[in-house]
Amino acid sequence: MTDKSSVLLELSNVAKVFTTSGIFDKSELRAVDTISLKIEDSKPKITALAGESGSGKTTLGKLILGLLSPTEGEIFYRSKSLYDLNSSEKKQYRQDVQAIFQDPFSVYNPFYKVDHLFEAPIKKFKITKNKDEARQLIEDSIETVGLRVSETLGRYPHQLSGGQRQRIMVARALMVKPKIIVADEPVSMVDASLRATILEALRTIHEKENISMIYITHDLNTAYQIAEDIKIMYHGEVVEEGGVDDVINNPKHPYTQLLINCIPKPNPKEKWIEKKKLQELISNLDKPIIE
Ligand SMILES: Nc1ncnc2c1ncn2[C@@H]1O[C@H](COP(=O)(O)OP(=O)(O)OP(=O)(O)O)[C@@H](O)[C@H]1O
Ligand SMILES: [Mg+2]
User: Where are the alpha helices (DSSP H) in the chain?
Assistant: First the structure.
């Protein structure tokens, strides 16, 4: 049984329904469809959240981050509903749960220099006592992700490469000393060599700082490299979950099997799944789980 006090964040039967209205009608989409999960303080883990485009991964990540509120169910932070947190608890929650997004460029104001990205959370969460301490912390965080201070501070986001911006996001999230990082496709926009560096940095941070991570991806290869656990999402639901080795080597749900079949094989004689076959498999997905 789980000790309730060690549960940092809990989602209990959470659903997010988006309502969109066209000219003549209104339609509802259950982007996240009744998901429960727990992130424990005493057992920090990297959990991958995988699934095809539109399966609800980002929506679930935003619910965890408190950027969206659930339509159904409830989210608890240290056993208290998010709705009941007082202002200091809310601040603690905001500090404890940090985000790394796919394209950090789109998240930040292009008129602020990179320095501002680091200074704002230091001020908001009162992380350091004085300016010198703040500068030291910023420089240390930048160097942890393999960037040079002289090549990053004093610049605007557009003056950095995509990979540098991505690492700035990692450095910033790390600097805040969070308990949980939600990393939404953090390496999808960088090349293969940098991908390995960023994943390595995330893993090191997880191990050294005991940070739990939700690693969102549609790429099972990187999920396999970085995560211990995996949840497979399909149409807003978690259709399969467990240890990453078990799920990838012995997938039970047809959708997971399908995703695994789509991973490019190193053997050139072994063909990728054909498009027609893929569509056939997709149309069979609503059939029961093969045990
Ligand atoms: N604000 C919104 N209003 C209406 N529908 C939305 C909104 N945000 C997301 N959706 C829809 O919810 C579904 C899930 O979207 P979500 O962004 O969570 O998918 P995803 O798994 O992250 O996909 P991707 O891999 O492409 O990033 C999609 O069908 C999307 O169109
Ligand atoms: Mg997404």
Answer: 57-65, 87-96, 104-107, 114-124, 131-144, 162-175, 192-209, 220-226, 244-249, 254-261, 275-283
